[in-house]
Structures are given as C-alpha cells and as structure tokens.
Write a sequence for this structure.
C-alpha cells in the first residue's frame, strides 16, 4: 500500500543569501545544520568585487545546497557607492555611514529572496547581516530585519494565505570572532570565502579595506590562523 | 551680491515608478502637479509585455521629467508568474491571487526606487498601485505600502540621519473610472499608455486579459471613449 503522505511536504525550504563572504558562508552552514533544504541565492548587482560570486558558488558546493541561483540587478545604473560607482574604496572607516554602503542593497537583495521564496514555497529566508561590525550600515540592524519580515508577510501569498515567512539573521548580534568560531564549529572553509571590497580576479584580498581589517581582527581575536589569501 | 541660498535645496525630488500603464501615468502626472522634480523609474524585470517600457518612456516625455532610468532585474530567473514564465495569461480572472501576480514584484521595484531615492536625496517615492481593481494582489494594499514606508525609513541614511522618505500611492483607493477622470483632468494621453499583459510589439492590446477588461470598464464607467489601440 502506498503512503498518502507526500515526503516533500515535510521539507522545510529556505532561501539563503550567499555573497561569497565569511558571514553568509556561516549563515548557510547554520541553515544547513538546522535541516533546511537550502536554496542559495547570490545577487549580481554590478559589485566591484565580482570574485565574491565565484567564491559564493564554491561555498554552496561545500554544503550540498538544493539549488544555487544568481539573479542579476543592475545597481551600477543607480550608483552612489564605492562598490558600484567610481568612488575609491577607503582604507580606513570614518564616522557615520561609510561610502561602501550601497543604497538599499539589503532591501533589494531580501526582496529578490522573498520573490524566490514565494515561488519555492519556502517559509524561511536567511541572511548574514551583522549589526556589530557594520554599525554604520542602517540596513544591518535588528529593527530593519524585523521590519522586512513584517513587510514580507504583507507582501506575499505565503503571508496572506499561508504559514508566513520568517527572516533569519542568525549572526546579527555576533562579533567577528564569534562568527569565526561558529564557522569553525560548522566546518566552514574560510579559505574559499572572499570578504575584501576590492579582491582581485583570483579572490585575493587587498588587506587594507574595512572588510579586510574586520575579517583579520576576527581571526586574531578568535586566536585562529587567518587563512585569507592576500595579494 | 550673490545669494547664499542654493536654489536646488528647495527642490523636492521624487522617484516615480512608471510602468507604461495608465495607473502609473496618472501617478506621474499627480507628482508633477504637486511640484516635485520627478525622476521616473522603470524596472525591466523580464516582463512578457516589454512594449510597456516603450510606452513608459513616451509618458515621461509628456511630463518633462528630470530624468528617466530603466533598471534591469532578471525576475525570469525566478519565474512563478504568467508575466515572467511559460504560464498562459488567463482571459478571465478567478478567485484568489491570479497567476499574473509576480512574486514580490512591488517589493523589488520599491526597493530599487528606494536605492535611487537615497542616491538622489529624494524624500518621496510615488507608485501607482491600486487596491480596488487588484484586490487579489497582496502587494497592492494600503497595509503593504505603510509597511514599506516604515522599512524605507529604517533601511536608509535618509531615514536614519535625514528628513525621512514618504511613499505615496495616490491611486490606492480609487476605482478605474476615478483614475480615468483624474488622468483626463491632468492631461494624460491614455492612447500612449499600455496596460495589456500581452500587448504586441507595437503596444496594441489583446482586449481579453484582466488588465484589458479592467481598463475598458474604467473608460466605460467614466463615460469616456476608450482610446486604447487593440490588435
């Protein structure tokens, strides 16, 4: 006698935003550990550091994702950031919101993730935003994530007719050292991740930008050798 | 003696989402009437009805916009809608959310508008969503717009450090007949707008899809001759 239970019905699907950096790699590892079928999503928004996307695909191979998709959105046509326009990447962060901030980037990436989640019937979105090291970025704060989750449940069939969508930002309150430790526990190969804002085509880091400094500090504070490949 | 007042400082800038359809044309006309310098934005998301974008550009010429931009985002790679995947456009709407609903489309388009608004220093975003005729679309309701505005003010420099961003949806509670009347008052040339979900390359409408039916009803109820060009 055949079972009338659809084995797929019990699968919990998640869309996981994967940028190629260390934070989203750890986030993917956490979603995988929690038993989600992970649909990894990278958003190619015209970023200066395109080698991140190569790293992103490698990371998805490590955690046997159900699917990997790159969606293109041309944020260069909007500009306004050192990552998408002809503005130099600074070597030292100052006060306020840094020029590497990309206007509305996280809103746009989460919105695309929401669209894919709705198509898949996924009830979870994971993203690796972190409020500690990136306190200057307005769209990395817990209030922002909570507001996006509220929006997601008003914007979609899943929210209106279904079980709702939960937006997970499991690293949001962790330090970079905590993220390093969590990644090591989960078996993340940090050597294949790329955090640098201006990595070269082979994914080698500059060692000077804010992202490089924060990453190096994380390994130092966690007391772990830094596997980053520098130019 | 030169004035120390920057004339640009008093200009109120708005990003106006313009799809090429009649609703967004009337919305642009309203933003223009209210004295905003209008930065018109179309999002090319892989829609079936690409002739809408040709119409959008024509409409922006009618209202002397400050700038017109098309941003590409590839929603075909996500699919899930009759407008972006190989799903037939229905001739008659049924109950519930129709297959022409594009998952998270309005969230994605507003997010891109938000990014551009932030780059421009615009404090307003206008969109032509309408809750009356499109009651089946979750992302056309007043609650959705309010939630997006709240998100916008948490997501951006303008919200955190500046004067805030207001999201205007001036048609949200109007009937299609009201929109026709408002457009005529404002001098909108409806003949150049394209609402049809499957218009041909010259922008001629099918006359059968939900969008065509609602549009034709609007002209009929307003007691106005329908200027739509049909195939």
């Amino acid at each position: 006698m055949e079972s009338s239970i659809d084995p797929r019905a019990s699968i919990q699907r998640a869309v996981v935003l994967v940028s190629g950096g260390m934070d989203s790699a750890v986030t993917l590892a956490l979603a995988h550990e929690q038993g989600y079928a992970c649909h990894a999503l990278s958003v190619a928004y015209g970023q200066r550091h395109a080698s991140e996307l190569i790293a992103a695909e490698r990371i998805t191979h490590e955690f046997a994702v159900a699917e990997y998709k790159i969606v293109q959105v041309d944020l260069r046509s909007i500009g306004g950031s050192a990552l998408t326009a002809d503005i130099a990447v600074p070597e030292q962060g100052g006060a306020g919101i840094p020029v590497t901030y990309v206007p509305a980037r996280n809103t746009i990436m989460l919105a695309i993730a929401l669209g894919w989640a709705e198509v898949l019937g996924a009830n979870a979105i994971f993203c690796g935003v972190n409020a500690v090291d990136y306190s200057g970025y307005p769209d990395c704060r817990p209030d922002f994530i909570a507001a996006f989750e509220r929006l997601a449940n008003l914007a979609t069939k899943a929210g209106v007719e279904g079980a709702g969508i939960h937006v997970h930002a499991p690293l949001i309150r962790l330090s970079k050292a905590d993220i390093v430790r969590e990644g090591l526990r989960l078996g993340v190969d940090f050597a294949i991740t790329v955090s640098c804002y201006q990595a070269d085509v082979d994914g080698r880091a500059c060692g000077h930008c804010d992202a490089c400094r924060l990453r190096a500090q994380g390994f130092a504070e966690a007391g772990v050798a830094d596997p980053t490949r520098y130019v």
